[in-house]
TrEMBL record:
One of its GO terms (molecular function) is Hsp70 protein binding. Keywords: Cytoplasm, Nucleus, Protein transport, Transport. GO terms for biological process: cellular response to heat; protein import into nucleus. One of its GO terms (cellular component) is nucleoplasm. This is Protein Hikeshi. Residues 136-185 form the Hikeshi-like C-terminal domain. It is found in: Cytoplasm; Cytoplasm, Cytosol; Nucleus. Its main location: cytoplasm. The lineage of its organism: Eukaryota, Metazoa, Chordata, Craniata, Vertebrata. The keyword Cytoplasm applies. Acts as a specific nuclear import carrier for HSP70 proteins following heat-shock stress: acts by mediating the nucleoporin-dependent translocation of ATP-bound HSP70 proteins into the nucleus. HSP70 proteins import is required to protect cells from heat shock damages. Does not translocate ADP-bound HSP70 proteins into the nucleus. Residues 6-128 form the Hikeshi-like N-terminal domain. It holds the Pfam family Hikeshi-like_C. It comes from the Eukaryota.
Amino acid sequence: MFGCLVAGRLVQTAAQQVAEDKFVFDLPDYESINHVVVFMLGTIPFPEGMGGSVYFSYPDSNGMPVWQLLGFVTNGKPSAIFKISGLKSGEGSQHPFGAMNIVRTPSVAQIGISVELLDSMAQQTPVGNAAVSSVDSFTQFTQKMLDNFYNFASSFAVSQAQMTPSPSEMFIPANVVLKWYEAFSVSNIKAFYN
C-alpha cells in the first residue's frame, strides 16, 4: 500500500504491518538522511474519508523512541517529501504507536504511517520544519543541478590540439555550455516554473 524512498537507497515497498491500520519502515543509518519520500503505491486506495498520518521515530539518548508527526498522505495527495535532518533533536509529540511493541535497534529510525479519519488528521499539527515543498528549495536544487552539470561537462574539456579525430562523435564547445549556463540563471528558473 505504501512506499518509502531515501536518496541513494533502494525504494522500500514492504512496510511492516504492526497493527491493522499501522505500518512502519525501518531507516538504518538515519543520521545520514536529510529527506524521506513517503508515497502510496497506487494498488490500494484509502477507504473513503481516510488518510495516512506520517510519523518519524528516532531513538533518544536512552534508546527510547521519539515520535514526531511529519504530515499526511491521502488519495488526493498520494506522496509527500519530508525533511527529517533537523528533527533528530526535537521534542516528541502524541502518536498512535505508543502501545505497540515494535522491534527496533538503537541505530535505526522508523517512518510510521497510521491510517486515520481525514477529520481527525485535519486537527493535527505536523512538526513545523518537516515540510519541504517550497519554491526556494526547488530553485536551490535546480541551481545545484546546473552547477553539477556544468562542472561535469567541463571536466571532459580538451583543447583543440588534444582532440583526436572521431567522425562518429559530436563535440560541443565548452564556451557554448558556459553561455547556456549563464543565460539560465536563477531568475529564469523561477520564471519558468511559475
